């Protein structure tokens, strides 16, 4: 095949351009249906343009020059660029992350309408930051700005944008120091468990709450736990391989499976009501998977209010388990493995809640 020769091909009922360069085959879909006579003329015109640029070494690396105007990547709106970014990375993302990207895309459309992504400059990016701050906490906005910066960096690789307007905005975004996690005291934990066990309406959640307080699972991990994930007949070990967020199953956080031990008392309770392998260990009272948001608003908060325990999100049960394990002298390496963290993360975010730190040993004391 001669250098620069571009052919029009039909593929699955649609026209595309085909050429070879540097020993590799290249394709460009045109979005023109096969059998469209006028479309074929347009396709041949685009093939001639691309062929001329190949012959003269003037190829547009983004290929936007050879696309039809409604398919050029440099004409996408800000919201559409975010949607394309989600589509590009979708298979590797957790469901919760996908939902986050969709929210950002919707917000971009809400603020910018059909403004092209390459028209968003630092001034517009700052306006979007202020918009997010009216709806989300500063630490969440920081996370969103990082995602937007990564999206625009990817957009540069496909020719959709020429610059990243989010980097400077992210650099000056301030996040107030976070309050350290406040785990439940032993007395509070016992009162919470007892309150659920004795509650006329919510006692079906008692096993779930006790499991969370003692085992330190993330809510999505406990909600997605099935009987087949208990790896032995004693129900003493769990293999965390699945999560459920708002009814949607997904992989564990960061895609990492882990083995977690179960305290004997909880293991006994699980053995007493063990179900079919594919059944959920902690289903919603009406069946199916629990919804963590509904649980928090309709169940968790009312119970804490009723017994006079200061409100903390259900995630505080995870901090509670970790802090009391460490306070009891458990090896941080074991605690980190059970929680699915590395030791550095454990000590940074969880050890600050430990109320007792034993004094270092006097290994130079005089021998008796």
Head-to-tail CA distance between termini:
91 Å
Please give the share of residues in helix. Answer: 40-55%
Counting helices, strands and paired strands, the structural category is mainly alpha
User: Uncertain segments of ≥5 residues (pLDDT<50)?
Assistant: none
Mean pLDDT: 87
Order of helices and strands: EEEHHHHHHHHHEEEEHHHHH
If you had to describe this structure to a student in words, what would you say it looks like?
It is a single chain. This protein has 368 residues and is mainly alpha-helical. The protein has 3 domains: 7-71, no CATH class; 75-172, DNA polymerase, domain 1; 186-353, Orthogonal Bundle (hpI Integrase, Chain A). The chain is built from 14 helices and 7 strands. The chain has helices at residues 37-55, 78-89, 95-112, 122-133, 138-157, 166-172, 186-198, 206-215, 219-223, 264-272, 292-307, 316-327, 332-339, 343-349; strands at 7-11, 14-21, 24-33, 237-240, 243-245, 248-250, 258-261. Strands 1-2-3 form a 3-stranded antiparallel β-sheet, with helices on one face. Strand 1 (7-11) and strand 2 form a beta hairpin. It is elongated, with a radius of gyration of 28 Å. The N and C termini lie far apart (91 Å). The mean pLDDT is 87.
